[in-house]
Amino acid sequence: MIKAIVFAATLATAGAGVVYAQQSGTTGGSPGTTMGTERGTTGTMGTERGKMMGQREGMTTGSTAQIMSTLPQHVTAVSNWYDQNVYDPQENKIGEIKDMLLDREGKVQAVIVSVGGFLGMGEKDVAVAFDAVSPAQRDNKWWLTMNASKDQLRTAPGFRFDRSKQAWTMAAR
């Protein structure tokens, strides 16, 4: 449960920057005006501190978060993907989404699918392009499909999550 909460918070944080970047520069106030910045909140972070915090070059600090009064259209909750089963075209379960990998802009590029195993033993984690997984609604339930078989996933290169690096790496053979 904790991992799911951390995962959701990570996606929300990554997505907030994308949403903010897509919004216009005007917020509240009269038309044609923009919110001013508070004293000491402009400029770029120091190189070392910015690297430590994973900040991209040219980003400013102290930006006020864009509060939304409406939600974007055509979006879905992370919970519709995370820890959800994935099925082949014949509706056989082939795995479960264990993680989602985002690029620097916050867009999902790949999913980690856990395949095989029993009660967490002997399972293999493989990376699959995000657009290879298709979502659908069936019987009021979220349904994820992929045009692949369980055997294809079992023979794909495996990955493991390295806790010290906080990143996915190639699994030892």
UniProtKB/TrEMBL annotation:
Annotated protein name in UniProt: PRC-barrel domain-containing protein
Every PRC-barrel domain range: 78-153
InterPro entries: PRC-brl_dom (IPR027275), PRC_barrel-like_sf (IPR011033)
Region (Disordered) residue spans: 22-50
Low complexity bias (residue ranges): 32-47
